[in-house]
Amino acid sequence: MTATTYFLLFTSLVFSAVVAFYQYLYKADSQLKINWLLAFFRFISVLLLLILVINPVISTKTNEINKIPLAIVSDNSSSIRELKANDKALELAQKLKTNSVLNEKFEIQHYAFDDEFKAGINLDFEGKQSNIDVAAQNLKQLHKNMFYPVVLLTDGNQTIGNDYVYSFQETAKVYPVVLGDTTTNFDCKINQVNANKYAFLKNKFPVEVFVQYNGSKPLNASFTIEKGNRKVYSQTISFTKSSKVQSFQVLLEADKVGIQKYKATLNASVFEKNKYNNVKNFAVEVIDQRKEIALVADITHPDISALKRAIESNAQRKVTLVKPKEVSNLDKYNLLILYQPNINFKSIIDINKNLKINTFIITGLNTDFNFVNLIQSDLEFKMSQQKEDFNANYETTFNLFAQKDIQFSSLPPLQHKFGKIIEKSSLNTLLRAQVNGVAFDNPILTFSEKGANRTAYFLGENSWKWRLESHLSSKSFDNFDQFIDRIIQYLSTNSSKKSLIVEHESFYNSGENIEIFAQYFNKNYELDENANLVIQLINNRTKRTKNYNFSKINQGYAVKFDGLEHGTYAFKVRETNSNAIYSGSFEVLDFDVEKQFVNPDQEKLTQLALQNKGQVFYPNQIEQLIQKLTEKGTYLPIEKSVVKTTPLIEWITLLILLIISLASEWFIRKYNGLL
To answer: Which terminal residue of the chain has fewer beta carbons within 10 Å of its beta carbon, N or C?
Structure first.
């Protein structure tokens, strides 16, 4: 307690005594013995009340010693078992966790990773993917601004995630322990096969192949591609000491509609320890039609290139760039995109009056809005010459097709002429304008449907910045490209609205997380957030059937499947209240990425150790690792002073004593007739 607190307590003691003496002894008419008892209770009551107000506290100072954390991170992916290092990994993890010297110096924390990061689990080496980067990112969150060591028990073979060499924080020293036989084994393998998801009937589609050879002597290997039991391509590949990695392109014929499965095989004349990586399965969906889209523009703008790239990311679309005065025949097009139309577009509008091709009108700073007001009756534009920057606000009530919010409000602002946009007909709006976070009535992306004709309006230029921002935030153009693809898909067809919309891929690789997304719309075509969606999944080979429930997520429902074996699956999605049904199928390809490795990646782990000022160790050097970690003067514990303050007397206790004292004084006075 401080000197001030001591002074206040002493003053309270004197004041309480003076009050009690004055009221019951000095001022009393008669000197009764009972007055001394009453004076005592009054003294206690006043003193307790003053102590309750002062609330004196006692401070105690203690020193705590915090050990530095030692993160032991174990690779739990199946590649450790494939390299026959699982027993050694368990042995090393146990030895490090139970070492008395390490436990005395460190706070030992055990983690494991495969495709996810987990704390304190038993290792089973069943993980289907390796993601060392996710371990690094999670350790960053757990130990911010802390200097600590990391022991990484792994083979260094990562299958997903960012480059882990640069993922660990600078304050973490990383000591990789290389698991697996480091003796270089002879191996021929197919590193990668790249093929488009779609190909067109009667066309040839390219397949890009990357092969690799680990060895020192020249070698010839045969490469083949089979479709079912039929060989569709073959060639001989010559490897040398200076040519160990090769890539080449193959053209295959798309001769049948549907999902076509292929098997690429690389065979060497020499015995190989691992033949699993000699085979790669891939599939291509062959379609028999392509949507032809005319992108009509009278100016040059980055938006045009961004739109073309986004649309043609789907191989079912082909975009032709044309000038408005150069178009004479529109019969072959399924959709017209009119970019910033002006009076020069009149001939196209006139031709389309008879053809009634769906249109996608995009406006901006160079648009002739008087002309736009004449060619359509959905919107009325009252524009000034002043320009305006605005962001997009996602409308959750949109129900024409499934489109999730891709954080539209955080995308770069669009530009448009300032003014009022009046909706003259029934429109379905996906995006509205907002300025400085304040929403306005002006639409940015809206749709009109009149009978069999559909029209979309995108009011703003510089959407190319959206595509660029999409890549910066997610390392992929997919979010923007799929957003545009859904618009094109809606506009290039005239089919009626569906109440149940389901999104899925045609094929997946085994080991991938398979997710199916669905939306259900009620009779008013509003998204029903209380729908009950179930899916029946059938393995076509075993005829085994399983039922799953969809889970509610943002703007829809999703179901995930883990651990599906390779094969073809049929499924049926049903909304139980309305009995709406969607049927589909997908293929799980036989591909286990964790079986591709024959050796640990020593080079990458060495880079990691150098980057984070650590050192590479091998299983037979575990004692040297322990010695390194326990060197004198390194990883010293942190001493902290902790000051704890506690009240001299708990306030509840004071309150109870005060009530007892006052009640006792009142009772005695009442009993003796002094009230």
So the answer is: C
**What CA–CA distance (Å, rounded) separates 498 from 250?**
40
DSSP string, 634-649: SSPPEEEEEEEEEESS
Q: Is 145 left (phi over 0), alpha (psi -120 to 50) or beta?
A: left
CA distance 663 to 667: 6
DSSP category for residue 527 = B
Q: DSSP for 530-583?
A: T--EEEEEEETTT--EEEEE-EEETTEEEEEE-SPPSEEEEEEEEETTTTEEEE
Residue 358 burial by Cβ neighbours in a 10 Å radius (0-12, 13-18, 19+): buried
User: Cα–Cα distance between 313 and 478 in angstroms, integer?
Assistant: 9
Q: Which pair of structure tokens corresponds to residue 13?
A: 């003691």
The radius of gyration of the chain's CA atoms, rounded to the nearest angstrom, is 38
Residue 495, classed as helix, strand or coil, is coil
Question: What pTM, to 2 d.p., does this model score?
Answer: 0.55
Burial of 490 (0-12, 13-18, 19+ CB in 10 A): buried
- Number of Cβ within 10 Å of residue 513's Cβ equals 12
Largest distance between two CA atoms of the chain: 126
* Contact status, residue 211 vs residue 266, Cβ threshold 8 Å: yes
Nearest CA-CA partner of 159 in 88, 273, 80: 80
CA distance 336 to 400: 19
Which two three-digit tokens encode residue 323? Answer: 């000038």
Confidence of residue 225 (pLDDT cuts 50, 70, 90): very high
Q: Are 110 and 72 in contact (CB under 8 A)?
A: yes
Q: How many CB atoms lie within 10 A of CB 436?
A: 7
- Two tokens at 267? 């065979």
Count CA atoms within 13 Å of residue 190 on its CB side: 27
Residue 77, pLDDT > 80, answer: yes
537-544 contacts, C-beta under 8 A, 24 or more apart: 537/561, 537/569, 537/570, 537/571, 538/569, 538/570, 538/571, 539/565, 539/567, 539/568, 539/569, 540/567, 540/568, 540/569, 540/570, 540/585, 541/567, 541/568, 542/567
Pairing outcome for strands 359-363 and 379-394: unpaired
For the chain, the first-to-last Cα distance in angstroms comes to: 40
Give the list of residues 6+ apart from residue 180 with CB closer than 8 angstroms, or none: 80, 83, 84, 85, 155, 597, 599, 600
Partnered with residue 62 across adjacent β-strands are: 642
How does pLDDT run across 319-343, given as a tens digit for each residue?
999 998 888 788 888 899 999 999 9
Exposed/middle/buried for residue 481 (C-beta within 10 Å: 0-12, 13-18, 19+): buried
Contact 386, 415 (CB under 8 A): no
Beta strands in 215-272 (DSSP E): 219-227, 230-239, 245-253, 258-268
Dump pLDDT digits (tens) for 6-51: 777 778 888 888 777 777 777 666 666 777 777 788 888 888 888 7
pLDDT in tens, 492-511: 876 556 788 898 887 787 77
Report d(CA 166, CA 538) in Å as an integer. Answer: 43
Residue 78's alpha-carbon distances to 81, 247, 547, 595, 645, in angstroms, are 5, 28, 28, 8, 53
